[in-house]
Write a structure and sequence with these properties.
two-stranded antiparallel sheet, 11 strands, 600 residues, alpha+beta, single chain, seven-stranded mixed sheet
Length: 600
Amino acid sequence: MPRYTPPLRDIEFVLHEVFGLSDELKAMPPYAELDAATLRAVLEEGGKFAAEVIFPLNLSGDTEGCTLDATTHAVRTPTGFKEAYAQFVAGGWPALSCDPAYGGQGLPMVINQCFYEMLNAANQAWTMYPGLSHGAYECLHTHGTPEQKQLYLPRLTSGHWTATMCLTEPHCGTDLGLLKTRAEPQPDGSYKLTGTKIFISAGEHDLAENIVHLVLARLPDAPAGSKGISLFVVPKFLPQADGNLGARNAIYCGGLEHKMGIRASATCQMVLDGATGSLVGEPHKGLAAMFVMMNAARLGVGVQSLGLTEVAYQNALAYAKERLQMRSLSGPKAKDQPADPIIVHPDVRRMLLTAKAWAEGGRALAIYCALLVDKELHHPDEKVRAESAELVALLTPIAKAFLTDNGYQAVTLCQQVFGGHGYIKEWGMEQFVRDARINMIYEGTNGVQALDLLGRKVLANQGATLRKFGKLVAALAQQEAANPQMAEFIQPLAGLGEKMTQFTTEIGMKAMQNPEEVGAAATDYLRVAGHLVFGYLFARMAQVALRQIAAGHAEPFYRAKLQTARFYFARLFPETAALMRSARSGSQVLMDTEAALAGD
């Protein structure tokens, strides 16, 4: 059976020793009184919930899956899921980072993100039921009317209601301009929505008393394309003025998807048959409003893969220490045993260290993004808010795509550590691989994220935001220029920072002549950018570890952090050279291929 221990020590290290969370929070009025001990207690209890309540349901939930009653359209979740969700609500966990004005606990987003890493590691499928609620909460908090906020936010905050986002239709996914769901205005100011949505996570279930659907649809006078999309809130049960549930709305689950992974998550085909909804924000500007939720979801998907990377690594490491197989190439290590544990073999260590590096780098990036969101929303300095928003916009496609690509590689390597046992369900590893695969696809495929990064976040402003991140890299390099202990981290990082400017300029110039150059280079470009960010974060972590060791701290944790950083820079970071060479090959080798792709 698989195991999971919340990585609280590493979370604490990144929060407090790398990013100085206490000082950051003191600068934000809503969080100025929070102390590290309080935050530690919250995360410790959150880790217990993840490890003790929902982790034991992960394997059984995958086996049992969800069931749909075709007559009533009701969905039953796996055994134990409903009871676990009741504990989740009773513990106040949905309210963790919500506005106290609506019953929230008012803690920083960065703490909520750390909690969700642990939830996703313990049981990604279960976590998807409450997972989208916070994004819907943020969307309504930003764009909802006072009446919508008062009606929906307290119940989303408490967790008594959950939420979804209904975007995809059978004929359109990423290209939402093609959607056909229509919304007809009614005399009372409401709307009747008709259409079909697919791939709706947690669209129907038995965990909460109501489900709030945020639905994209077209008004009768809507212009064609994405400029004609409006956003509506469509509840499963129509709430009365006092918030009590009224009549069942005409939105229901018409079918469950039979999936490769996350089988315990109800992925629904939702039918709207004249369902009653209310407009969120302005007509025809629904996509911009929905992006509040979509961006939150993209960061959340990165955290899903971070959680899976961590739990897969923990299990592979434990197995490698126990499994006996052959002798070390340099001579027996476990002389009292008939063979050595496989962790003595260099290639097993390569696989384990790759997963460990992807987990620790991913954790640092996820925490960095969440802290930027907190500063964007709550810092009193307008300039800091604007710069934080700009940076998190740049980092969001990296967090989604780089973390999920790395996560799939990591869980696959961890499965490989198990050999044949990795293919057997009882060990849990094959489930991690199946679950991780979806994260590269939904909330915008990773290819779409790459196009977003290169086309919209970099080239659209001539690399201005990227240069701002580059200044952080340059400042760190200058700070540590005279420190020989940091040279192995700073030199490759500074080198890539300098190359990135020329690399970006080359692609931009080629794209001015041929727009296909952006699509041809985008995926490679995102991975290079991801390594620039990871390199910066690993250098900062190594910097802290070296300082702590120099100060006399003998905790093995710091030596382990240095060894992981060395592995990352020596074995993973160098792929940037090949990626840049690949990207520079241009679009012709991809687009001048009619014969190659003609088929039989």
